[in-house]
Amino acid sequence: MDFSPLLLSLKLALCATAVLVVLAAPLSYGLAYGNFRGKQLVEAFLNLPIALPPTVLGFYLLLAVSPKTAIGRFWEDMTGGPLVFTFPGIVLAAVLCSLPYAIQPMKAAFEKIDRRLLESAYVLGLSRLQTFARVVLPNSVPGIAGAAILVFLHSMGAFGVLLMVGGSVPGETRVVSIAIYEAVESLDYRSAALMSLAILPICYGFLLIIERLKRG
Amino acid sequence: MFLQIDVAKKLKDFELKVSVRPQSPSLTVFIGPSGSGKTSLVRLVAGLDRPGEGRIQFGNETWVDTAAGIFVPPQKRGIGYVFQEYTLFPHLDVCRNVAFAAKDPGKVDRLLERLRIGHLRRRRPDTLSGGERQRCALCQALASGPRVLLLDEPFSALDVMTRRELREEVKCLKDELGIPILYITHDISEALYLADDIIPLVEGRIDRGWLKRTIAPAESGPAARRAVRETKLGLSY
What is the pLDDT of residues B6-39, one digit of tens each? Predict the structure, then answer.
């Protein structure tokens, strides 16, 4: 059996998680504490990937990053290759479709922090950024770990959006969910069963690790 | 150094309108019934809220001047603020809490010893008693080298004995620090014990007569009123 789709899925999930934890933290902070016009519009927009069918999201993403657009051209100028049907392309897709799963728990964790802690930090001379790093983040570890769990598992299981943007290039974009689908399509139930079985302990193992981390 | 506060701010039920000039070094107590605008006033001094209009001047620095559009953020004011309830950072032990914004790390140990919590330095806030926590909060505020100290009912959640001990500490600190201290309380005996100046605040206005009315001689009213007054006086002290 070919294990490369499995490894690719793990790699994808780890990349997407790393990118999203960094990306979603300031966004969630802005949504939790910001007081700007159109906040609800922004929040609803960022949550769209939950509501949209993955194929719709994938379709728009495919249009947005095709080599004909500014984003696609920029990527080609920077790296010499296209974004569609490549690993970076599916990382982008996984990041986009998992964004709400990172933002929701982080925002909830940030909102739970007592405002007076922040005010205390301000009075003690800390800027907003320093307060975020030294007060908000350390007191939101469980929320951030929760976000990481959700994003990791959601990226492991992503299918439609990846297929739209990445297709099924072996070793590049053929992740385990797509490989399982294709195995079933070609009546190779043995491969499908093995890969499905392999996913189970991996997901379970990661959940256990993160639970440990959460408990400190 | 003096602090000149002339501010007005609309609150929910009334307008806070205060003009005071606490001297330094001195301890000014703001006293009054709860919901009279004491905390709102202190928050304006700390820079956590903005007044509708007015000025706050510290020495030759202008912290707030609504007419000139000046507002110095809390970070730049050099203030020590001890809140009514515990606001220690839950993820840090006592020592790190105190060192959190310490100008001089060497001062941390001295302060911990000075407020007699040196033996607790490795404990997290959630394992401390209320009194220990407020001692730690006081250390934290002092370690940042404040130029003004704001104490907002710092000990009102504590039991009588602990409150008395901490009151004593503040009285000693007052002379050591030599900075203006604004102290909020609704406990008259605490105010009388600590204050260089007592400013009663009622519904957002300074009401110098309030204190007199509250502690007027006992014969001026019927027994029932006397009973109320005696509780207010905090005879537990």
Answer: 999 999 899 999 999 987 788 999 998 888 999 9
Q: Which residues of chain A have pLDDT under 50?
A: none
A–B CB contacts, 8 A cutoff, strictly below = 52
Distance from CA of B127 to the nearest CA of A (A): 17
Per-residue pLDDT, averaged over B223-230, amounts to 59
For chain B, the DSSP string reads --EEEEEEEE-SSSEEEEEE---SSEEEEEE-STTSSHHHHHHHHHTSS--SEEEEEETTEEEEETTTTEE--GGGT-EEEE-SS----TTS-HHHHHHTT-SSHHHHHHHHHHTT-GGGTT--GGGS-HHHHHHHHHHHHHHT--SEEEEESTTTTS-HHHHHHHHHHHHHHHHHH-SEEEEEES-HHHHHHH-SEEEEEETTEE-THHHHHHT--GGGS-HHHHHHHHHHTTTT-
What ipTM does the predicted assembly reach?
A: 0.86
Interface of A with B in 32-61 (CB under 8 A): none
Of B81, B85, B90, the CB nearest to A123: B81
Tell me the per-residue pLDDT of A161-204, one tens digit each, with 9 for 90 and over: 999 999 999 989 999 999 999 999 999 999 999 999 999 998 88
Binary contact (B48, A122; C-beta < 8 A): yes
Check CB contact of A133 with chain B, cutoff 8 Å.
no
Instruction: Check CB contact under 8 Å for B89 and A126.
Output: no
CA nearest to A119 within chain B: B48
